[in-house]
Amino acid sequence: MSRSAIRRWLTSPLAWDLLLALFTVAWSFIFLRLFWPGRVNVDIANQYLQATGKIPYSDWHAPVMSAVWRILIDITGDPGSLLMLQVGLLAAAAWGIGVFVHRSGAPRWVSLLGPTIMVTPWAVSQMTTLWKDSQMAVAILLAVVLIMITRLVPKTWLLWLPALALLVYAVGVRKNAVFAVVPIAVYGGWCLVHLWRHRRGRSGDSATSAGSAKKGRPFLLTAVSSLIVLGLIGGGVKVTDAVIDSQMGVTKTGQISQIFLDDVMFSVPESRLQSSDAPRALKDHISSARDKCLKRGEIWDAYWNCYGRGTTGKAFSPIAYQDELKSLWLSEVVTHPVSYIEYRISVYSSYFFTSKLEYWEADWDGDAQKARLPAGSAKADYIFRPYVEDFALGTFPMLFKPWFWTLGAVLLLGLGYRSHSRTRRELNASAHRPRSFWSEITVLAASALCYIFGYFPIVPANHFRYTFWPALAVTFAFVLWLAQRRIQRVRNIGP
């Protein structure tokens, strides 16, 4: 091969794609090497014990994660395979964004931001640990990237199958992911309608295509298509849970009773509690536990903080009097919305403006040792803890607060609303129809907002893992926005 041929290949899009892939793989290898088999808390240890068959399956945590972990362990023989899946999903999404940005005409330095997202402090902080929140976030992100490919690359509609599977897994692993998935289902429905209209326009004559172009937006068709996508995701979750239940015999624990307990304990005054028809043992337990929580300055997550957990006192044991607790919630909480809203605002404010558990240290892996999980490398903390906690959290604490990512999502939505219609007109007038990322920017920002606001009635703590998906979504949306700006400047087709 001549020097000129080598030079042409090195400057080709394929060579740059491979360079982005090498960057992504190198970082993934370093990360897996240092944090293998993944950091573990009490929740994750419980799911690992289920995955290895040491304890029965229960629905306190999503059994689908334990089932997937079990399959991975059966295939690889290594519990760190779940961390590999988690990092691999993020790596695939980051590389995919980098390739799209580059091949759409943005400068190469912008495309480098795709893989670079993997090394941001907020990504490093959560990817170390096998949180179901991290599993959910990377699954949703890759699903959006796959749907994006079907929209922009011809003859790739088969990618809808893994995209739907990822969205089913995301909702299955964390049920409140539905708040984040609804905007994505709308986006998916819009993409399907867009694909259908494009194929229909290409199969007809020019007059038919022109007539179709003049028609208004097919809102009804998009709504129906979105509902179909959402129905497929919901049906997939139901079928998956049913299959796991039939194979593993999942024990029902009534985990939602934790929310009822918090609402009753902290929004119902003592006088109303004692005058209710609830069993005396339940009322006395709630009353004494409330005093303990208030002395500790805790106003949420009573099950773990002061209630003494469930009937056996062990972690994840069901709360006694669940039906009576639900009746108490219906009679004393729902019927007094003002006190309920006051309580939920106070809880949500703590979540929205503060954070903790930004980084899970190796010394906290006591539950992993009890579950006989292999110990990870202690060197990782010397390398990454100062980067996450001392540098990022100490210098820019807003990076770990929900309000910051909410503000970022709102700004991106405003930019999308302002620029999308103008860009669309330019795209329609352009002969070469350059790509636009405004729909992806909008859906990522909307999904982040819906997920954050969806925590209002259920938020149990101010852990940063609850904000990981919004942070990831807004970061990727920002990369796409920056790429769109550069593309518009180069082609002079937009603002």
From TrEMBL:
Source lineage: Bacteria, Bacillati, Actinomycetota, Actinomycetes, Micrococcales
The UniProt record lists the keyword Magnesium: no
Species this chain originates from: Brevibacterium sediminis
Membrane-spanning parts: 14-36, 82-102, 109-128, 134-150, 157-172, 178-197, 218-237, 400-417, 437-458, 464-483
Coiled-coil stretches noted in the UniProt entry, renumbered to this chain: none
Domain of life the protein comes from: Bacteria
Keywords associated with the record: Membrane, Transmembrane, Transmembrane helix
Protein name, as recorded: Glycosyltransferase RgtA/B/C/D-like domain-containing protein
Keyword Cell membrane: no
